[in-house]
Amino acid sequence: MTLYYHDDLKMINLYFLTKIISILIIKLFNLAVEKPNVQKNYFILFLLLIITSCGSIRRHNEQKASCIPPEKLKEDVDFAYSKLKEMHPQLYWYISQKDLDHKFDSLKKTITEPLTPLQFYFKLQPVIADIREGHLSLRIPRKKFTKKEIKGLEHKKGMFSRFEYYVKDDHLFIVENKDSIENIKPGTEILTINDIPVSEYLKKYRQLVSSDGFNTTFQPYFLKDWFFYFYVAENGFTDHAKIETLYNGERKVYYLKRESKSENDLKNDKEQKKRTAEKKVNDYVAFNNSYNRNFKFLGKDSSIAYIKVKSFSRDYSEKFYKETFEKIKNAKSSYLIIDVRNNYGGSLDEINNLYSYLTSSPYVLIKPSQVTSKISPLKTSYFRKSNILQYAYKGLTYPTFFFAQTFSTYKKDGKVYYKMKADKVAKPNKDTFNGKIFVLINGGSFSASSIITSKLKNDKRVVLVGEETGGANDGTVAGFYSFQKLPNSKIDLPIGLLLVQPNITFSNTKKGVVPNVTVTETLQDVIDKNDPQMDWVLSEIEREKNLHK
């Protein structure tokens, strides 16, 4: 019996299970309509859903706190490696099979005592990170919260999230204090948290993070954003924290606390969540009160257009680019600056659409996307994160999904590929920009950001300014995922199923997209809100304008 057959049986069983559940729910609703005491029946159904949900959360948290015997953990190691070999289309891109075999075998020898899922995560994830595929990572096991607990947290301010950070080697600095908490100055280094050196945390967390290949710029950007995600997962949500700091040679101790939100804060939260037409097109993110997409003209005239994209979310992106490039064309702008710094990627469809505005010739964005087998597309976790009602709906639509995925692959030269819109010839947009383009990149430019910048650089369409990207120049493994759950620790392992590569002549450097002009920023630049990369571009544009006078 093959592993796929086992997975397929599980899918079929889930399908019939959801059919039964859907019929049961329909019966309950019909009963509620037919009987006079309708509200009572609805209440019983609602209560059933709540009880099921609460029981699930309790069981989840109990499992996360329990210790698992060594032999069971070793089974999880073998399971993880077998699934990677089965599904990952480029597993040995940056590490040899011999070296990876050795790392998994060595890991098993270190597991000699029972561990909690979290302790096991900190052992297994560094080996996964050594594969050097930035999209490939275990999901850190965390406590689940009830709706009541979540509501309680929503009524409190963050404790660490109210600062912005900068990571340099084993040092963590505060570069922005949004609410002037304790009057902590930008440039303050956090030395310890609850008497534990931050350097120890950074060394530990750095082992959990990998970029694509042998890139050197990605980790500091990712760690500044994810440091406290790891910290809270490891130490739990608390209402107080003691931090020791260093600023201008002076050490100080501060006691942070999680404050309750005022009525005005809660009112602002509700206002931020409202989706106006502008918020939709610019893809507003209420969590950090910012937009994923921004457009403006720089300077006194409209000769320089500027587009900032924080994430290729796809939401309303077609309308945004249509309106933006119409404005640029009408303004007859000569220069365009596209800023994808700190953009971790996102939708392939969005970057394919964006590219259509940046070229005057037909183009193909990516090469055909390879998968390990014709059945790989069926291994996506179709029923993942579904409640009872969603299971019922997905059960009814699963046959459509099954047949669509079954006919989504083709074989060529002994390899299997997945049909993608982005690997077909596309036409340039009628409002394509024909002026000079500068693209700003840094170590936080990852995934789709690297795909589009690699393609633009290869086609000699732009001048890239900044740092080497965090994503690889020659592609990555992502697309869509199969979420495998390790059988004993219950840790999720999402495995990318598609080898996605830009349609370029490969560099074979095993590194990120290297800029045409390297310009880096310092800690002081971030504190002072200087932008040396943007300054270089604007100076270069001014120089070119003066030459043409």
UniProtKB/TrEMBL annotation:
<protein>
    <submittedName>
        <fullName>Peptidase family S41</fullName>
    </submittedName>
</protein>
<keyword id="KW-0472">Membrane</keyword>
<feature type="transmembrane region" description="Helical">
    <location>
        <begin position="12"/>
        <end position="29"/>
    </location>
</feature>
<keyword id="KW-0812">Transmembrane</keyword>
<dbReference type="GO" id="GO:0004175">
    <property type="term" value="F:endopeptidase activity"/>
</dbReference>
<dbReference type="InterPro" id="IPR029045">
    <property type="entry name" value="ClpP/crotonase-like_dom_sf"/>
</dbReference>
<dbReference type="InterPro" id="IPR005151">
    <property type="entry name" value="Tail-specific_protease"/>
</dbReference>
<dbReference type="Pfam" id="PF03572">
    <property type="entry name" value="Peptidase_S41"/>
</dbReference>
<dbReference type="GO" id="GO:0006508">
    <property type="term" value="P:proteolysis"/>
</dbReference>
<dbReference type="GO" id="GO:0008236">
    <property type="term" value="F:serine-type peptidase activity"/>
</dbReference>
<feature type="domain" description="Tail specific protease">
    <location>
        <begin position="274"/>
        <end position="520"/>
    </location>
</feature>
<keyword id="KW-1133">Transmembrane helix</keyword>
